[in-house]
Write a sequence for this structure.
């Protein structure tokens, strides 16, 4: 897109995301992503209901009455957005591609983060890490992150999720919050997923376009893999071919969910033809209850 279209797109995302953040989304974000630890605040007199383990025995001995240590939550977090910009994310059968919807979701998460005084960073990847923005605070920084997602032109088309996660582990302190936005058209990433999920809070957001799981009945067509360039001719009138394609996609989806569960990674599925806001809210409500 040209500069005028880019600015218009950024402005639209800015207005839309801030409206959501200022109404319902920031509260949901804060409820889910509380600080990863606690820090000492003050000593006060014991009150009924206080836990015995918080008693400060030294102060209690000196003062002759029971005192407890008060702790407060460490609120500041680091939010890292890992955005898959491989060839397959340029596909979109609706008004938006998977990559464009990733940018909108990333913006919503980023604006929620800075409203809660958290830092936001960015990793754009294909089969290598192609762009990195260190975590910082502030609205200007978030607008820069959104712009980078929208206008960055990747050099490669493949996907290597393990490489992106490994890079995040190297540049981030433990207990960061990682949002991994991808269509997960990759393999052999489970081991690194498990490593990263033990070090950070990792949420996998899968972008799905329904047209990629259903072949229209339009005769003989040539399909090209957006990442490898491989081409294959398919007879879409064949019932056997239709069944094989749909079953293969169901199997891939089931395997992906099994990987997330076994790796103890929270996951969200976003269909490009549905509201991602509803799915994100549903995820947050579920995580708060848990």
């Amino acid at each position: 897109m040209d500069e005028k279209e880019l600015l218009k797109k950024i402005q639209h995302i800015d207005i839309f995301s801030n409206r959501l953040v200022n109404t319902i989304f920031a509260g949901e974000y804060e409820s889910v992503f509380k600080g990863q630890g606690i820090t000492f605040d003050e000593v006060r007199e014991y009150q009924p209901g206080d836990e015995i383990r918080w008693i400060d025995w030294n102060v209690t001995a000196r003062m002759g009455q029971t005192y407890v240590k008060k702790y407060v939550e460490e609120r500041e977090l680091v939010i890292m957005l890992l955005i898959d910009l491989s060839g397959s994310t340029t596909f979109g059968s609706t008004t938006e591609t998977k990559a464009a919807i990733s940018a909108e979701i990333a913006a919503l998460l980023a604006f929620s983060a800075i409203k809660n005084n958290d830092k936001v960073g960015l990793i754009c990847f294909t089969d290598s890490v192609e762009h990195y923005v260190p975590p910082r605070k502030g609205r200007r920084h978030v607008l820069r992150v959104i712009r980078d997602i929208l206008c960055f032109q990747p050099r490669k088309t493949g996907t290597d999720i393990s490489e992106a996660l490994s890079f995040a582990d190297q540049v981030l302190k433990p207990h960061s919050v990682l949002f991994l936005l991808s269509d997960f058209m990759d393999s052999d990433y489970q081991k690194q997923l498990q490593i990263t999920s033990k070090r950070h809070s990792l949420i996998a957001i899968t972008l799905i376009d329904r047209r990629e799981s259903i072949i229209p009945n339009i005769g003989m067509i040539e399909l090209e893999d957006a990442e490898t360039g491989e081409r294959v001719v398919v007879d879409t009138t064949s019932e056997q071919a239709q069944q094989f394609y749909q079953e293969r996609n169901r199997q891939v989806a089931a395997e992906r969910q099994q990987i997330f569960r076994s790796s103890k990674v929270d996951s969200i599925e976003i269909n490009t033809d549905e509201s991602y806001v509803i799915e994100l809210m549903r995820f947050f409500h579920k995580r708060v209850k848990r």
